[in-house]
Predict the 3D structure of the following.
Amino acid sequence: MRANDAAELDEWKENGPAKTVAGRLSTGWLQISMVAASLLLIGAVIFREFVFGNHVLLYKDIGADSTNDTFPSFVHVSDYIRQHGFLSWSFSMGMGQSLVHLAGNLILDPVVWLDRDLIAPALVYQHLLKTVIAGVFFFGFLRVRGLTVGASWLGCALFVFSSYMCMGSCWIVNADEVVTFAFFLFALEMACRRGRWICLPFATGLLGMVSVFHFYLGALLLCFYVAERLLVRAADPRQALVTAAKVLAAFSIGIGLGAVIWLPSLHSILNSPRGSGLISNFAFGVPPTRVFQLESPLYYFTAALRPFSNDLLGSGDGFRGWENYFEAPATYCGLLPILLLPQAFVGAKKSRLLVYILFLCVVIVPVVFPWFRYLFWAFRGGYFRAFSLFSVVGLITISARVFSEYVEGRRLRWMLLGVTAVALLLFLFFPVRQLQSLIDPNLRVAAVVFILLYAAVLAAGQILDRQRAAAWIVILLVTVNLVYFNNSTVNRPTVTKEDFTRRTGYNDHTVEAVREIDAREDSFFRITKMWGSGPANRISYNDALVFHYYGTPCYSSFNNIDYIRFLIGVAAIPADNIPTDAQWSPGLLWEPLLSTFVCEKYVLSEDPVPYENADHYEFLDRFSDVYLFRNTEFLPLGLVFDDYLPESVFLQMPKWAKASALLHVAVLQDSLGLHSGLPQVTLDALNGRLRAIPIKQALSSKRANSFTMRLFRETKLEGEIQVQHPSMMILQMPFDSGWHALVDRKPAAIARADVGLLGVQLMPGKHTVQITYFPPFLYVGLGVSSMSLAVVLFAARRWPRIRR
């Protein structure tokens, strides 16, 4: 019997089971309640303008992703699950693409279950909820590690009000990472310290809700955690390895547990420019060619100053440091940790000292030599993001241990404390005029004041032998420190609640225009909207998600790769701007013939002149400053072609000829064309057609022999078509392997045509065609998740604890 078990048994004999269990439960729940209430109170103070004021958590500056991406996606997901059920295919994203990579939002971001009108004001409450949940888990993590209640509270407050989390109010993936990794750390600690492994599979599965890549990040954290355990706490290394193997097994089961979400999401991500490698290292270009290659002085100055304050070098668009406000290191977590960190290295056991040195190397080396940071991201980017979060976790954990020992009576090294404080102050006044001009003088003064106060209170507590009282004063100072410094991080230019009642932004007169169009039509068509309604200072490409129509632009990190291939193939995206346009995709804006080809029927414009003078647009109505035009040459979804041009030939054509060519021939991959049964058209013959047949006549011919749609849903199309020769029916939407075709109720193969669109081959005759979409690997993922859950339930009953 272990010593802990013996102590528990003695306590049980002395006090009785009910009293012991009840006492523990009451104490634990009381602590959790107090932690949650205090974090909620501090969060309400920091986010007071959003809770009690007129602002919503939608930013207009560099945080415009919240306004142009997150909010439209949340609104669309909210609408979609009410109208269509589980996330599948949506024609409102670009020219159509899978939504399944957003399925994690159904769990991590509960605002999507609200009505669309409630989402914007509810964002702040969602963020505060995440703050409380992450804080409670991190508090539990530190308590299980043996820290005092005060030190554990201090650590969780520093963690959830770090710059990483506060910036997560507009870059929502940050907040999701803080919550999931806090849960993961708590579950790891419970498994290794107390043998209770049941939380670990669920915490692991939750990582996959953020993205499948977070399993890799979780594995990295697990490796470091196991190494720390072996070095510091393993009296018997062999037994520790056995425990580590069991923890790894629980981690693996957790991966299977989340398969119903991450497996179809992985397919969607791999079917995107970023996931497929079409775009590499998007944020920072080509990685360093040399392992020990250095960066610019501004880079190092930024990395060194950001732990003092996230906004010391400016906020939002006014950021004066390296790269930008979001991509720069986000390592601020209060000033106390950097003041206490050196104390951890004094008097520590050799094994713990080795862990601390390893931590510093892992944190510092990738900052000094960026090649190692690219290595951290498996050379898929050079981001600081999760790397900053891991750095913050380590810094807080180490400093919280120092503070816990201080509360329990350990005396700090005065000389080291004084030298650290002086060194930090001297660095803030580093004598280089060009660099000093970048620093916010007010925040620098505040940093000086807090550093001096921390040092004075800690020293006074030792001198007066009142370390516990000094610790509570320090906790109060930390609270003030976090509130004051996060004020500039959080309170940047944002959308107001009034913006949703005025006729501006996402509530402009597009609402009436789309409502009028919907009253006229019940078939499939696309709308070209010539401006972005988003109220941020960056153009919005996701208006279709908010106003609920079908267009062609889309802003997404994971746009459908065939959508992008089509845009590249027809030269709608210039070759020298693919990395940007593959995410901020303008679709077919300013491409009138291509827009007509992909079913444009209406145009919304704030400037009527270009369309008043165009031949095939007629004015329909005006809604204040919004003008509605109809495209009289509208082509329906589903065009038929009875000959083809090889894709390799098409790609060599000039841009002006490509749009016209798509009205005459199907463009097929060279190998597919040879086996399609369709005759091949030579380039000379095609050029002859382009010269002989006017565009208007070609449009009329295609319209007369098109697919007659009887049923349209987001995931199901059904209709009839008649062809005289072996033909290829091309639907003007991106190819995706999740689409399946039935021709006369018999399975038919789908093909990639027109450099990324969906094709269905037809034989002569009249046919009923049904095309349906189902997310690939969803059933496989559901099966894996079900089996993993069964394993968890069986193992929880059979082996409730890890045997050590």
